[in-house]
Structure formats: C-alpha cells, structure tokens
Amino acid sequence: MSTSIRTRVAIVGAGPAGLILSHLLAEAGIESVIIDQRSRAEIEQTIRAGILEQGTVDLLTRIDPNTRVHTVGHRHDGIELRFQGEGHRIDFPGLVGRSVWLYPQHEVLKDMLALRLEAGQDLRFGVTASRVEDVDTDHPRVIATDADGAELVIEADFVVGADGSRSAVRPAIAGTSRDGYFREYPFAWFGILCEAPASADELIYSNSENGFALISQRSHEVQRMYFQCDPDADPNSLSEAQIWETLQSRVPGTTLKEGTIFQRDVLRFRSFVARELRRGRAALVGDAAHTVPPTGAKGMNLAIADVVILADALNALLTENDTRLIDGYAEAALRRIWKAQNFSWWMTSMLHSLPEHNEFDQRRQIGELRSLVDSEAGRTYLAEAYTGWPLG
Ligand code: DHB
C-alpha cells in the first residue's frame, strides 16, 4: 500500500526547528506537512538542554505573546565561572544588555506542538522518512513509512531535513550521511535530574582539579547537574552517594543541596558540520546540519537561528520565485554555525580536563580563565556569545 500526498514544504522532524519553521511558513501563507518518527509523548518527554538565548525568547514571544517562557521559565542575568575554588560572575545585561532564560527544550516542544496542532498544521507522528528523491528537480519527494508499515510519499516544492543528527534527508544533500567536518572529545557529561532545592541562583560552570561540573536548575523543586566523565561510562554504574560525592568534589566553595536522583544519562560530546547544507530543493537545519558539544547550550538556539534564515529564503523562493536567498542559505547559516562551533569548542576546552593534560596545560588553562574574567573585553565576548548573536 502506498499513499501519496502533496504539499508545498515537506518538513522531516517535529523538533524545535521543524515546528518553528512550519509556523514561520504559515505566517507567510505557505502550507507544510511535518512528519516525525516519534510519538507526540516521546517528543514531549525527551530531556535536552535548558537555556534559551535572548533572540530565541524574543522569537517565541512574537510567536505567542503568552508563552510560558515568561511564567514557567526563569530569566538569568548571568552565569558563574568557578576555578581554583573561586566564583567569577559574568553579568550579561551589564555587559551586553541581553539575558538568557532557563526553560527546558521539551517545554518549548509542548508549547509549539499545541500551537501548531491548534492552527491545523498537518503533523504526522510515527512516520519514518527513509529517503528523499529528486532534489535537483522542482518536485522533490520524501519516501516514508507510517506506523502501520504503509508507504507514504510526500511530493513537495521543497524538502527540509530537521530530523536530527541521524538525518534521513542528509544523504540526498551531502551524498553520504557522514560527509562533513568532525571533532570528537575524550570525555562526556554524566547528567542528573534530582528532586532538591536549588544550590545556586544561577548556573555554575566549574573547572576543578577533579574535572568539570555544571550546576544548573529546572525549577524550585527540580535541579539539573552534570559532571565530566568517561565517554563509555555506564549511567547506572554509580550509586547516588558516589554521584553526590563526585559533584561535590568539583564545586569547591558550594555545599550542594542533595535529593533523590530520578533521571541519569551520559551525553556524548561531538562537533560536526555537514559539508553541504542545501542542494537544489532540499536543505538541512539544526542537528541534521550540525552538532555542538553541550557546553554553552547552543544546540537548540542554533537550530532556531537556521530556520529564521531558511523561512525567509523559502518565502522568497515559493511566493516570488526569487532564488537569491535560497542560493545564499548555506553561506548565511554557516557564518553563525561556525561562530557557535567555535564558542562551544572554546567553552568546552577551557573548562574540562583532558587525559593528556600535564601540569603546564592545567596552569595555562587557569591563565586563560583568569585572562577572561579579569578583562571586560573577555567577559563581554562570553556574554555576547552566550546570550546569542542577533537573529536574522
Ligand atoms: C544546561 C545544559 C547546558 O549544556 C548548558 O551549557 C547549560 C545548561 C541545562 O541542561 O540546564
């Protein structure tokens, strides 16, 4: 059995990028179909990072003035960098007049899914894209399989891969799924969610002799924390007591408020940019196009920045047959992508200890952190990058 449907833009992936793109297209009167292999519940429960840049919040507020970012989320006006047991606050509004918001990605997804479904968006869960064909013609198509195993063919004017790091769209654009620029890191993050009051008002990024830790929050009752670990670590190998001991040893100067740990995961670190972001009538956005290591929380923000650029380009292409913006999409998106790649790599390198580090490397790293916090120019760069460069 095979069913065929037609739309203007076929979007593979109902993550933040795909959902926001469908909204921006709808604003321009362009109809789209979104498919995602996951169920709605799975999408809404995937735990990811929690920091939204100023520009992301401005966009979400424009999309929905009553967004829960402002009621459930929390504005953060700074972060703390801690090293040699001392904290150094980076004051975002004081340095760049911008802030960030702590509002978990799955909450953004709940909001956007509700909004799009209410607006009548054609959004199909449990549908797995297998490949994309004919991107060099004016009628590319997505070949997919629905939850019952039946084939679904989506014929479109344009196909967007917003389907994450194992994108099914990428091979049609880049030739293979792996062609791109890579970096692996010899460590990962052990992440926990726990039921406890906050140990600090703002995030603490801590470089310690025992390795890196990040103290983040979710709400008054739930906290998110991470510590640097071996990439092959088994999340179930440590007892709760061992986890607290490890975390505590890495934030000297703060006594962490402990509580029941109800979720644990190991996050791999990778930097990746696909060699091609667009070919003919198909383009990649978000993790389908690039991956950043989590330090600095750029992943979702970068995905949203991609779709802001792509939405304008698709509007020009599909309503005025103007190809200039779509021809410039990859170059425009890559400018920000490489800035974010640099920032994420830099924060990661500055804060973690590497197995091959000798005493020189450790002391140099402290020298780098001190150069940063002692310099208004240094702190300003961090604040500018962390709160996010203006969108569009
Ligand atoms: C969180 C994750 C990050 O990668 C980061 O840099 C800051 C916060 C978080 O999940 O809260």
Could you explain the architecture of this structure?
- The protein contains 12 helices and 21 strands.
- The longest helix is centred in the C-terminal third of the chain and has 23 residues, at 329-351.
- It is of the alpha/beta class and 392 residues long.
- Strands 7-6-15-16-17-14-18-21 form an 8-stranded mixed sheet, sandwiched between helices.
- Helix 1 packs parallel to helix 8.
- The chain has 2 domains: 2-50 and 104-179 and 275-347, FAD/NAD(P)-binding domain (3-Layer(bba) Sandwich), CATH 3.50.50; 185-270 and 354-387, D-Amino Acid Oxidase, Chain A, domain 2, CATH 3.30.9.
- It has helices spanning 16-27, 40-45, 54-63, 92-96, 105-118, 170-174, 240-250, 299-320, 324-327, 329-351, 359-373, 376-387, and strands at 2-6, 9-12, 32-36, 51-53, 74-76, 78-83, 86-91, 100-102, 122-125, 128-133, 141-145, 151-155, 158-161, 180-195, 203-208, 211-217, 222-229, 260-274, 278-279, 282-284, 290-291.
- It binds 3,4-dihydroxybenzoic acid (DHB).
- 3,4-dihydroxybenzoic acid binds at residues 49-51, 203, 214, 216, 224, 294-297.
The named CATH superfamily of the largest domain: FAD/NAD(P)-binding domain
Bound molecules: 3,4-dihydroxybenzoic acid
CATH class of the largest domain: Alpha Beta
Number of domains: 2
Mean pLDDT: 96
- What is the beta-strand fraction? 25-35%
The count of β-strands is 21
Distance between the termini: 43 Å
CATH topology-level name of the largest domain: FAD/NAD(P)-binding domain
What is the CATH architecture term of the largest domain? 3-Layer(bba) Sandwich
| Biggest sheet, spatial arrangement of strands | 7-6-15-16-17-14-18-21
Rg of Cα set: 21 Å
- Assign the structural class, choosing from mainly alpha, mainly beta, alpha/beta, alpha+beta, or little secondary structure: alpha/beta
Major sheet size, sense and barrel closure = 8 strands, mixed
- Structural shape: globular
Low-confidence stretches: none
How many helices in DSSP terms?
12
**Fraction of residues in H or I helices:** 25-40%
